[in-house]
Amino acid sequence: MIYDIFQILLWVTAITLVITGLDDMYMDLLYWIYRKKYKAKMPDFNEMFDKPEKPIAVILGAWKESSVIGRTLSYAVRNLKYKNYRFFVGVYPNDPDTIRIVKEISKKDSRVIACINPQNGPTTKADNLNSLYAGLCEYEKVYGEFEIVLVHDAEDFMHPFSLKLYN
Known about the structure:
By secondary structure, the protein is an alpha/beta fold. The chain contains six helices and four strands; from the N terminus they run ααβαβαβαβα.
């Protein structure tokens, strides 16, 4: 009896895995069929090093991110192989630890800008991003417009050449 139940569960699991894997197999087949066609159209990565740097704004929402925001920003300003960017970090007035860390980094590197939300947190992600965008627009009125705007997570490291690739 138990053997029969396990055998049925095994078959159901196997069939489910096959069915859910069909879309992965389809994508793999498409890759192998079209890889030569698209490889010829891929830009030469050396081109990205020759392009003039467009101004890039990177916006990060940060609520209670004091444990990760420091290493993320420090890593970025130290390792990014790009100069013409600004980080706009959306923080909340009732999150003093995150504000302190962002301001410490912004004192060392003027490309990091703290945008303090007018409301106490946490609010919605949309509210934080809207507040960040308003801060970015105010910055643009004084210093000129950004050609590229990226949204980034507070805990994720950026590849040193990622901004070159976006550029």
